[in-house]
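INFO batch 0412 | record 1 of 1 | parsing
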Amino acid sequence: MRPPARLGVLDWGIGGMGVVRELRRRAPEVPVVYVSDTGFTPYGKVPRAALVARVSRMVTALAVVVACTAASTVIGSLGELPVPVFGVIDCALGLLPRSFRGKVGVLGGTRTIRSGLYRRGLAAKGRRVVSRIAQPLSGHIEAGTVDSDACQAALDRILAPLRDADALLLACTHYPAIAQDLRARVPRAQLLDPAEALVAHVLASAPLPPGRAADRLLTTGDAHAMRGSTRRAWGFDPGPCARTMI
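INFO prediction complete | emitting tokens
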């Protein structure tokens, strides 16, 4: 298969910028096209059939890496596609060694948690998997309001049952942006960030671009807001962003 001009990364918002950051760390020569689909209904809030249709359309046009965990829940239903597609869930499940025993917390959006993919995939003798729907957190990260009383109260409520967890799997690519807040509330847990495993898998398996094209940042929503949200959440300026009508 002929490699594309750029390695595509798809997410509903700017959570996948953590994946891009990891790509830049490990393979700075690989050009990327990042697509933030904020002009569409949040992926966690649409019916499964509509999400399958949307993700299929987006990856066919642009992407090979699906950085959105909600979108990754439907990858198995996309059928045959003209590009290889890599979701985050299988890579995330591989972060926990088979020998691990103890309490595992899973933070994710409503669709991700209710799919049961993490609960079933992490189940093993000697483990206790506790899943928590953390839907408000990604919205606060997108809006740049993680320091607000509302966000801090949501963190306290969501993480209270996980305070004694031995590992905390971040089942949303937004959450590494608030790693410091998570560590303060789950002090002994090892934080598991799927971005690292996803990037390692893609670099080992995908037909990579030759490194000649320039990066592109696209959004179906507000380009100015996407750039600002990335600066606030991830601490770097991603550069100019353009609106796309895909």
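INFO post-check: The chain has two domains: 7-87+196-243, 90-194.
INFO record closed
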